[in-house]
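User: My notes are a mess, but here's the protein and 1,3-dihydroxyacetonephosphate's SMILES. Can you give me a structure?
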Amino acid sequence: MRPILIAGNWKMHKTQAQAREFLREFGTALQSSSQDSVPLTRTVSERQVILCVPYTDLAVVVEQTQGSGIAVGAQNLHWEDQGAFTGEISGPMLVELGVRYVIVGHSERRQYFGESDETVNQRLAAAQRHGLIPILCVGESKHQRDQGLTESWILEQLDRGLAGIDLEHLVIAYEPIWAIGTGETCAAQEANRVIGLIRQHVGQAHLSILYGGSVKASNIDEIMAQPQIDGVLVGGASLEPKEFARIANYQALATA
Ligand SMILES: O=C(CO)COP(=O)(O)O
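Assistant: No problem, the inputs look usable. Here's the predicted complex:
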């Protein structure tokens, strides 16, 4: 049985005060949106909820989620442990704060900050060296999809990104770029197909592979009904406590 992960990526949103407010409302919403009002700890122990928050919120969110079962993630890390890298944050700095997961290679990092598969690979290795679980993001652009390049592009991202990486302590997220922040969700069956290809290519039976891109309370049940999809990486909808709680408490439908 592969672990189910429901991860929120806040991107560059929320001050510490806003993070505290979110967590107050999220705790309540998690219980009230759960069908049988199970306590927070039980809900999240069956489905690992992860909040990937800005660096400045990490300490507050770790402190406020202690004992709740919610795990905390960062959104990037540098490959060196320390050094003259102005503006960067290293693995040991995250570990000291109690962070357990870290997103690596998000398409926004690749698009706006020049991340390449090579630096993604180095960041993955650094995360694992320090016991952090990296969430590697891969996905094609609209242009690549239209050109029929989806599969070859993703397999290339995987081959380059995962060279020498331990496949046991890793999560992959399939995030088609054209579905991020656009409201245009990838059809659940198509996401299932691509994730199946990723699983086959990586060849690691226990790997959790998530879908990301315009996930909302209104489409989570259908997405999670797909047999290859082990969870979601949620952007915009993770900023709103009630919406994200409903996503975490998705209703398990019969497998599509
Ligand atoms: O980029 C994403 C998560 O990492 C997805 O963002 P949205 O859910 O806002 O489309």
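Confidence is low (pLDDT under 50) at residues 37-45.
User: Great, I'll file this with my notes.
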